């Protein structure tokens, strides 16, 4: 089962690189093969919503982390095999793409060496110490021991082959048993992902989250931080059925968006079965994750920013109404309308979210006055990111605290920037 999410969430969390920044994917992308890179991207686009699948993948990667396993196949060897085996199909004219004699010889030799290396790894390598790959190992050993491939193992790796032998092996591996070869390659790509992510976990001291069954209503992350920051400030937050909604306040530049991305990224990555940037994490498996941090206007249907927000809330309401357990995050809910409507809408929607205790919600807002009305619901928790004034200069701790902020430093910042002086005299004083 796959976790429900969407392009808006993937964009909000900056999972993939854009011109101006790298993505979370790039942090984990240390694969040795092109095929492994493609498998990793698919995992990022298709997180899991099944406890057993999440625990299995997490356990495999954690085992390779403990073992400090190195990728057992030379990338150059795989490059040769991939180039060779990719020419097994037919072109648009129905003809097999031509490979030169030298290319065929190199491809056959490389593939023989690779199959020997694979058999050695599944029979004697670290993989035998990894819980969760037992069946895959047995299947691979069975495939490699198929009588059709026995001629491969009668040859020594890197041995010089006669022209007739090369021709016979070419027909065997590039035509008759091509599907077996592709199966081996796909398993290698999966191992590449597991081992490379294990290396990332070890190098960055990422933690493996503990997953709990759906409906257990727990989300606890200790010392979570954004993995792209060089000097991040870590924060901790616990949510459960008794605090299924968090109302977050704080001034601009206080770090709300960074915290929201850090926290929700950890929730997303945990559902992939991957290690996360935190010191500890426990979470209930959810049906879906949806964030709304940078919601664009939908000009294609003539929708304003506010209407785009309304449609976004409607989408969440539809899924919640169907009984889905979701992690939902809104940064500055209803920022696209006037303060009065935003206030009323924030209170009404947050109250309604509080009634869905099998889901988790984080709502950030500048409308601190809404907090007093929201205190009517016992399962709404209040946190803020403070601003400390050093004279007339605001300083930010980026550390989450309980309560609702009373910071009102907007005019101080405006005056510090000399905007009013510039408008009055044409130049900034000081």
From TrEMBL:
Molecular function terms, GO-annotated: ATP binding; ATP-dependent DNA damage sensor activity; mismatched DNA binding
Domain of life, per lineage: Bacteria
Record protein name field: MutS-like protein
DNA mismatch repair proteins mutS family domain: residues covered: 243-421
Pfam families on file: MutS_III, MutS_V
InterPro entries attached to this UniProt entry: DNA_mismatch_repair_MutS_C, DNA_mismatch_repair_MutS_core, DNA_mismatch_repair_MutS_sf, MutS, P-loop_NTPase
The keyword DNA damage belongs to this UniProt entry's keyword annotation: yes
Keywords: ATP-binding, DNA damage, DNA repair, DNA-binding, Nucleotide-binding
Family: Belongs to the DNA mismatch repair MutS family.
GO BP, one annotated term: mismatch repair
């Amino acid at each position: 089962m796959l976790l429900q999410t969407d392009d808006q969430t993937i964009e909000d969390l900056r999972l993939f690189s854009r011109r101006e920044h790298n993505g979370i994917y790039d942090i984990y992308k240390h694969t040795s093969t092109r095929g492994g890179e493609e498998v990793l991207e698919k995992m990022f686009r298709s997180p899991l919503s099944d406890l057993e699948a999440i625990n299995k993948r997490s356990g495999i990667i954690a085992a390779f982390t403990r073992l400090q396993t190195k990728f057992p196949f030379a990338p150059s060897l795989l490059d040769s095999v991939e180039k060779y085996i990719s020419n097994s199909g037919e072109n648009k004219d129905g003809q097999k793409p031509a490979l030169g004699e030298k290319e065929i010889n190199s491809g056959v030799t490389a593939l023989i060496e690779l199959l020997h290396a694979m058999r050695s790894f599944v029979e004697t390598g670290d993989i035998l110490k990894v819980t969760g790959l037992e069946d895959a190992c047995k299947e691979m050993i069975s495939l490699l021991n198929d009588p059709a491939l026995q001629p491969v193992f009668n040859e020594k790796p890197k041995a010089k082959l006669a022209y007739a032998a090369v021709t016979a092996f070419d027909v065997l591996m590039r035509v008759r048993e091509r599907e077996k070869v592709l199966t081996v390659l796909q398993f290698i790509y999966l191992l590449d992902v597991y081992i490379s992510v294990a290396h990332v976990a070890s190098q960055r001291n990422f933690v493996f989250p503990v997953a709990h069954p759906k409906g257990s209503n727990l989300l606890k992350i200790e010392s979570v931080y954004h993995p792209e920051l060089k000097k991040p400030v870590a924060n901790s937050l616990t949510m459960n059925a008794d605090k299924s909604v968090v109302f977050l306040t704080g001034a601009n530049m206080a770090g709300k968006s960074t915290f929201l991305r850090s926290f929700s990224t950890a929730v997303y990555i945990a559902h992939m079965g991957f290690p996360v940037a935190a010191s500890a994490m426990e979470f209930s498996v959810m049906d879906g994750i949806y964030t709304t941090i940078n919601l664009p206007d939908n000009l294609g249907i003539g929708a304003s920013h506010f209407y785009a927000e309304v449609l976004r809330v409607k989408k969440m309401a539809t899924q919640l109404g169907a009984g889905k357990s979701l992690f939902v995050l809104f940064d500055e809910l209803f920022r696209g309308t006037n303060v009065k409507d935003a206030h009323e809408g924030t209170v009404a929607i947050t109250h309604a979210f509080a009634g869905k205790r099998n889901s988790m919600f984080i709502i950030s807002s500048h409308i601190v006055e809404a907090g007093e009305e929201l205190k009517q619901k016992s399962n709404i928790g209040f946190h803020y990111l403070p601003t400390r004034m050093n004279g007339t200069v605001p300083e930010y701790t980026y550390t989450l605290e309980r309560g609702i902020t009373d910071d009102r430093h907007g005019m101080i910042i405006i005056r510090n920037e000399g905007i009013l002086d510039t408008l009055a005299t044409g130049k900034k004083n000081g």
